[in-house]
Design brief:
The complex is a heterodimer. By secondary structure, chain A is of the alpha+beta class. Chain A contains 15 helices and 17 strands. Chain A has helices spanning 70-82, 183-199, 242-263, 311-318, 325-334, 340-348, 350-361, 366-384, 395-406, 415-423, 429-435, 444-456, 461-468, 475-485, 492-503, and strands at residues 14-26, 68-69, 90-91, 94-97, 107-110, 120-126, 129-142, 146-148, 159-163, 170-176, 212-224, 227-230, 234-236, 273-278, 283-286, 299-300, 307-308. In chain A, helix 5 (325-334) runs antiparallel to helix 6, helix 12 crosses helix 15 (492-503) and helix 14 crosses helix 15 (492-503). In chain B, strands 2-3 form a two-stranded antiparallel ribbon. In chain B, strand 2 and strand 3 form a beta hairpin. The chains are: A alpha+beta, B alpha+beta. At the A-B interface, strand 2, helix 1, strand 8, strand 9 and strand 17 of A face strand 1, helix 3 and strand 3 of B. Strand 2 of chain A pairs parallel with strand 1 (65-66) of chain B.
Chain lengths: 505, 103
């Protein structure tokens, strides 16, 4: 997956990587965190022009007041429940003050000492077993805007340009304990978290659009002369691909050991530093230092009241928990006996997963349903450029086709035709098959008549003789003629039996 | 009771964080004024608040929520109307080096 080099144990020293992560998740509510201006992380607004998703609250006009987005609070609690977090029964909002042109109010509304989600965990698969990654907390805040250094299209500007579309997007910041011992573990966790959030319906999770941004905190324990030295922690800012997460952690492992060999500096007060990731050179690079925590001057935001989560609210949100993707994958493979690749493909897109579940709820068998979905329906989806769930073939229709195939009413050769018919009609596929002349002929006397005609055809006598002489593949030519006569409606299994019986008489 | 006194260095540091340019005279004045305010607030420490839930807000309200329904916002032109500088649909600020502040 990565092009970065895994150092293994740098310089022959015995070292241990310690990595924790902060993950920012942009919630895909329709509106922003504090006002009803549209949210750029919602798919309806992905393509909005610069500075078109604004309101007086977003641009920090004096006298404006923030009002909490109910949906964002619920989504945050939903993620917290999925991560086994203790949900705060009360929490408040704080102002985090710093100056940057992408932050219109000069403070970010966040949660300092009362996160909405407290300690939790997520178990990740590692080497055929599982490893528990502890979640420290998850708090809700607002995203900042974006700074551009050139005009779109590359034109030069003598200043930096500010687009505030993203300002005020609800942002869930999830913080883990330093439980990752390798870059691989951090990536597995990141991918699981992305799947989980997408299946819970709280984010679109498009990495390229920055819907999920990862900040690993990395240091290395080095065994030296019966002593364990700890290198200072380095935080890598704003990684928005798993490749970058992987590469940055590997690079820091080597770099920190090299630096320690050079200057011997160990972790101490204020020793933490911030670096960025250079995707082209595959190295981390030093970054401007922001304020220390005590310089953010956190204090409770006087514009906002507390959040109180009572039992009824908590249970209503708990009812929205879905089977999490990792558990679902295991169930599809272990219980439904799907091939792992098929199960993964179905789970990859939450809308497809939901569609597949609806097909099963209509009574279709899992294996034939998965086969239809993965082969025929996905092919059609590719042709039409839409998801298999969005082609106009209802779950009931797909389940019905599974039934028709199972009963031998239609052959697999007509499934594609039948699916196309379903995209423009809500009728039962049984009826569509009838109207389209797609019903398989299973009537023995009709089949026999076709077979007799073909076997009597003088041009086919060589094939008949070959077959009689034991040359099995000769049946292909005879089958083809029967299918042609029946215009594809003959049941191939029955035709085979009939030909063999008659030839061997 | 801890000493509520605030030093001139505290005031200069706070002013720097707030991007305020203060004259030496102002630093003098604010150091004494802020010291007085902190001294006054310090009186609250004399109250016994054992068992009283901390009150983060002056109003005893909670869950003041808004439904997640979008409404047309502020037009780009209107939003940019008071900007000291702009370039096309963007606010323009003095050149910033390096990556953004980030949330």
């Amino acid at each position: 997956m990565t092009t970065a080099h895994d150092p293994g144990q740098p310089y022959g020293l015995k070292t241990t990587l310690m990595v924790g992560m902060e993950i920012h998740v942009e919630l895909d509510t329709r509106t922003k965190m504090w006002t009803d201006a549209p949210n750029v992380a919602h798919p309806d607004y992905f393509d909005a022009g610069p500075n078109t998703l604004l309101s007086p609250v977003v641009i920090g006009m004096p006298g404006t007041l923030p009002v909490m987005n109910h949906a964002a609070v619920e989504m945050s609690i939903l993620v917290g429940l999925a991560l086994n977090c203790a949900i705060a029964r009360r929490c408040k909002w704080d102002r985090k003050s710093y100056w940057y042109p992408d932050l219109p109010k000069n403070y970010q509304i966040s949660q300092y000492d009362q996160p909405i989600c407290g300690a939790g965990y997520l178990d990740i698969p590692v080497d055929g077993s599982t490893k528990r990654i502890r979640i420290t907390r998850a708090h809700l805040e607002e995203d900042a805007g974006k700074l551009l250094h050139d005009l779109p299209g590359g034109g030069h500007s003598d200043g930096s340009l500010v687009d505030l579309n993203r300002a005020g997007t609800p942002l869930l910041e999830i913080v883990t304990e330093p439980d990752f011992g390798s870059a691989d573990e951090a990536v597995v966790f990141g991918q699981m978290l992305r799947d989980l959030c997408r299946h819970l319906g709280v984010t679109q999770g498009v990495m390229q659009q920055g819907h999920m941004r990862f900040e690993p905190n990395i240091n290395v324990l080095i065994e030296k002369d019966a002593r364990t030295c700890k290198t200072p922690i380095v935080e890598i800012k704003n990684l928005n691909s798993f490749k970058a997460v992987h590469g940055a952690i590997l690079h820091e492992h080597t770099r920190q050991v090299e630096k320690w060999l050079e200057d011997g500096v160990e972790m101490g007060a204020r020793s933490k530093s911030t670096r960025g990731w250079d995707d082209a050179k595959l190295v981390t690079t030093p970054q401007r230092e922001k304020e220390d925590e005590d310089e953010y001057r956190y204090f409770p935001d006087p514009d906002l009241c507390e959040v109180e989560v009572d039992d009824a609210m908590l249970e209503a949100i708990r009812a929205r928990l879905v089977e999490l993707p990792h558990a679902r994958l295991r169930r599809y493979v272990d219980e439904l006996k799907l091939k792992e690749a098929d199960a993964k493909a179905i789970i990859d897109e939450p809308a497809v997963t939901a569609y597949f579940e609806r097909v099963l709820a209509e009574g279709a068998g899992a294996l034939p349903a998965a086969k239809l979905l993965r082969n025929n329906l996905s092919k059609l989806a590719n042709e039409k450029g839409a998801g298999p769930d969005a082609l106009g073939v209802s779950a009931a229709q797909l389940a019905s086709i599974v039934g028709l195939l199972d009963a031998g009413t239609v052959g697999s050769n007509v499934v594609d035709t039948l699916l196309v018919a379903c995209t423009t009609s809500d009728a039962d596929p049984a009826q569509l098959a009838e109207q389209g002349g797609l019903v398989q002929v299973q009537d023995d006397s009709q089949l026999e008549a076709w077979v007799d005609e073909v076997l009597a055809n003088p041009k086919l006598q060589k094939a008949v003789e070959d077959l009689r002489g034991g040359k099995q593949q000769a049946i292909g030519a005879l089958m083809g003629q029967v299918m042609r006569l029946s215009k594809g409606s003959a049941n191939p299994g029955q035709v085979t039996k009939l030909i063999l019986a008659k030839v061997r008489q | 009771m801890p000493d509520p006194a605030i030093t001139q260095d505290d005031v200069r540091h706070a002013a720097k964080l707030c991007r305020l340019a203060l004259t030496d005279g102002e630093v003098d004045r604010f150091t004494s004024q802020l010291g007085d305010i902190l001294g006054y607030i310090q009186k609250l420490n004399e109250l016994d608040v054992e068992g009283v839930r901390p009150m983060p807000h002056a109003l005893d309200q909670h869950n003041v929520f808004r439904d997640d329904q979008p409404a047309p916002g502020l037009a780009t032109d209107a939003a940019l109307a008071n900007a000291p500088a702009k370039d096309g649909p963007f606010f323009k600020v003095p050149k910033v080096l390096g990556e953004g502040g980030g949330a």
